[in-house]
Design a protein that fits this description.
Length: 117
């Protein structure tokens, strides 16, 4: 059974652009066969396109506050175990569309456009 990252507040399952075995790009759930360690979780979060490293372009005080908020938000993503059927259903509901987000709430898998959950 695959592991995924689930947002502890919203129930969203982490998705992002990836490449399949044929190196074709697709938008789907970030899944792992084994429970991901902190480094793999961080890589998944950063590669999802949701978070970014802050550059030198903003002043230190604002940068510090923004980075701290991002750290707190990233900490809300928890490892969760999905069934094979849930993993497949999540990817089907995403429809390879980066404008969609998929949520696992009360055992139900639903998809909504980003920002409308």
């Amino acid at each position: 059974m695959p592991y995924a990252l689930r947002h502890s507040v919203t129930g969203e399952l982490l998705a992002g652009m990836q490449a399949n075995a044929y190196q074709l790009p697709y938008y789907g759930l970030w899944l792992w066969d084994d429970e991901p360690d902190d480094a793999l979780r961080f890589d998944g979060l950063m590669n999802s396109g949701r978070y970014r490293a802050f550059g030198e372009g903003i002043n230190f005080k604002n940068r510090h506050a923004a980075e701290w908020e991002q750290v707190l938000e990233m900490g809300r993503w928890k490892v969760t175990l999905l069934t094979e059927q849930e993993a497949k259903l999540g990817n089907v509901k995403l429809r390879n569309d980066p404008a969609l987000r998929v949520y696992l709430r009360d055992g139900q898998m639903v998809a909504y456009p980003a920002g409308s959950s």
